[in-house]
């Protein structure tokens, strides 16, 4: 296993996974992002990477550690944040106005061509915006950074109907299973009990590769069951004010017309924990500070998180995330 | 045989799919920011040789396949089986037509081939990357022709047909790349 002990220094890879030239281009992208928000008078903020609460999301795995120090003699669990969402919403509740943050986010169990367990996220919030106003601003940012064409947009329902000939909002479980099997995913489809897993399977494998190839593509009105932290649509509660941005085979951004109702938010955390229990995962305590801030009042706003490393990949024409970060997890 | 979780997937790992041993060629994780992670895996079925894509839910476990490669020298064929021998232990193994597949046309006596065994039985034979074979049939070519002008078909002693330069003649021995089936050079 550890033949490096005897093998000596020759086995140790010390060099960066990105070239210095790429890191220069990366720095230029970051400078452009900051200039973009400065020109729009959006305030740059920083919130904790380590916090006392985590997220209930069933598909996010959190790193944790223990703080021992003055006032915390017996050890206080701290969690590396999977996104700065809760803390930034507390700033909004405190009257910050429009804010953005460029910071590290941490997700366990994620590593690959487009993933690193530690990555750089750009997240911003716009009081008074709905999801469409924010999509327009994301589109502006994309053009400012990449000089790419105007983004296209289609609803989640349109995406399924156009590319798979099936309505994701009304299709039965059997219809979803049948379609997934026809597309070569019978192995998963036959046993799958969760509607959203089947929808995600079809979306990831059969739709994502077809959209956003020439121009970035927004997909909006995700199903209510995948609302995450977005409000449900007032006219059609089958869908939520959630959008995603795809470009050249990558998911770049996820945004919400933010849920501001504390009771509804707390109920969604409970639903997540019920699902976690059903999946054999440990429950996650609801973040009491975040819920208290919502109870105090979060202004109506839209927010979005964008993967900066992936944006730099597009800006530099690289195909692997490790080529745009100084040291990927295997060299960290 | 051990089970492997998707986190252990990597190129070369041998797993069972639909009752057939397979080798993983490529493994890619597809993980939406909000949603289930999947592994999109490109595999080669080791018996049929077919390459296909398969999707797994990340975290799933898959049965491993008891597959090992062994290097053996080709001895002879009795028409039904092709016999190979371990040059150190002198142990012999017989592979059938199915295990040989297309490799049959590259078998040269005493050449060391890689035999893939599944549960101890041969399921695939991989010839050396380069073999030397005699030309048994080809059209007479023009003098003065150089390689790379299109060439002509030539039949080799094993029945394999490769494109050779026009100057190569019947009775000559040539070196062929078995992976591409392409002519490399004449053997003096």
Description:
The complex is a heterodimer of chains A (332) and B (188). Chain A has 332 residues and is an alpha+beta fold. In chain A, 37% of the residues lie in helices and 20% in strands. Chain A contains ten helices and eleven strands. Chain A has helices spanning 4-7, 20-39, 85-93, 131-146, 156-164, 173-189, 195-207, 262-278, 288-297, 308-316; strands at 43-44, 50-51, 64-69, 72-80, 99-106, 118-127, 152-155, 217-220, 242-247, 250-257, 301-307. In chain A, strand 3 (64-69) and strand 4 form a beta hairpin. The two termini of chain A are 19 Å apart. In chain A, 40% of the residues are buried. The model of chain A is unreliable at 1-7 (pLDDT under 50). Chain B is an all-beta fold and 188 residues long. Chain B folds into three domains: 1-61, SH3 type barrels (Roll), CATH 2.30.30.30; 65-124, OB fold (Dihydrolipoamide Acetyltransferase, E2P); 128-184, OB fold (Dihydrolipoamide Acetyltransferase, E2P) (Beta Barrel). Helix content of chain B is 2%, strand content 53%. Chain B is built from one helix and 16 strands. Chain B has one helix at residues 97-100; strands at 3-5, 14-17, 20-30, 38-45, 51-57, 61-63, 67-77, 81-85, 92-96, 112-118, 121-126, 130-138, 152-156, 161-164, 173-177, 182-187. In chain B, strands 9-8-7-10-11 form a five-stranded antiparallel β-sheet. In chain B, a hairpin with a 4-residue loop joins strand 15 (173-177) and strand 16. Chain B is flat. The N and C termini of chain B lie far apart (49 Å). The mean pLDDT of chain B is 91. Chains A and B meet through helix 6 and helix 7 of A and strand 3 and strand 5 of B.
């Amino acid at each position: 296993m550890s033949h490096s002990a005897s093998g000596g220094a020759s086995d140790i890879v010390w060099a960066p996974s990105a070239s210095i030239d790429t890191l220069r281009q990366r720095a230029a992208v970051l400078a452009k992002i900051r200039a973009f928000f400065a020109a729009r008078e959006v305030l740059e903020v920083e919130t904790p990477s380590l916090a006392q609460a985590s997220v209930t999301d069933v598909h996010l795995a959190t790193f944790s550690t223990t703080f021992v120090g003055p006032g915390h003699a017996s050890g206080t669990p701290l969690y590396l944040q999977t996104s700065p969402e809760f803390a930034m919403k507390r700033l909004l509740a405190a009257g910050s106005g429009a804010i953005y943050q460029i910071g590290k986010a941490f997700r366990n169990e994620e590593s690959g061509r487009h993933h690193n367990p530690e990555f750089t996220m750009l997240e911003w919030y716009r009081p008074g915006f709905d999801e469409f106003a924010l999509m327009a601003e994301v589109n502006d940012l994309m053009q400012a950074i990449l000089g790419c064409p105007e983004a296209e947009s289609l609803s989640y329902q349109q995406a399924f109907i156009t590319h798979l000939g099936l309505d994701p909002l009304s299709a039965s479980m059997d219809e979803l299973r049948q379609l997934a099997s026809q597309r070569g995913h019978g192995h998963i489809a036959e046993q799958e009990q969760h509607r959203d897993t089947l929808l995600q399977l079809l979306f990831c494998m059969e739709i994502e590769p077809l959209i956003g190839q020439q121009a970035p593509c927004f997909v909006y009105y995700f199903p209510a069951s995948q609302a995450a932290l977005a409000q449900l649509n007032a006219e059609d509660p089958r869908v939520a004010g959630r959008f995603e941005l795809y470009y050249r085979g990558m998911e770049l951004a996820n945004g919400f017309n933010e849920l501001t109702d504390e009771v509804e938010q707390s109920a969604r955390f409970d639903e997540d924990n019920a699902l976690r229990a059903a999946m054999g995962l440990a429950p996650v305590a609801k973040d009491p500070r975040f819920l208290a801030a919502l109870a105090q009042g979060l202004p109506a706003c839209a927010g979005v998180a964008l993967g900066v490393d992936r944006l730099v990949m597009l800006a530099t024409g690289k195909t692997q995330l490790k080529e745009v970060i100084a040291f990927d997890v295997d060299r960290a | 045989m051990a089970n492997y979780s998707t986190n252990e997937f990597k190129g070369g790992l041998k797993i069972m799919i639909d009752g057939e041993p397979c080798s993983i060629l490529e493994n890619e994780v597809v993980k939406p920011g909000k949603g289930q992670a999947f592994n999109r895996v490109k595999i080669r079925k080791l018996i049929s040789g077919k390459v296909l894509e398969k999707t797994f839910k990340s975290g799933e476990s898959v049965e491993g396949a008891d597959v090992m490669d062994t290097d053996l020298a080709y001895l002879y064929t009795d028409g039904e089986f092709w016999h190979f021998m371990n040059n150190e232990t002198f142990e012999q193994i017989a592979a059938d037509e199915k295990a040989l597949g297309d490799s049959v046309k590259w078998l040269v006596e005493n050449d060391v081939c890689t035999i893939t065994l599944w549960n101890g039985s041969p399921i695939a034979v991989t010839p050396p990357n380069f073999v030397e074979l005699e030309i048994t049939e080809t059209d007479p070519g023009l003098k003065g022709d150089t390689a790379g002008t299109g060439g002509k078909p030539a039949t080799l002693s094993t029945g394999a047909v490769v494109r050779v330069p026009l100057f190569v003649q019947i009775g000559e021995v040539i070196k062929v790349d078995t992976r591409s089936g392409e002519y490399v050079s004449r053997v003096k």
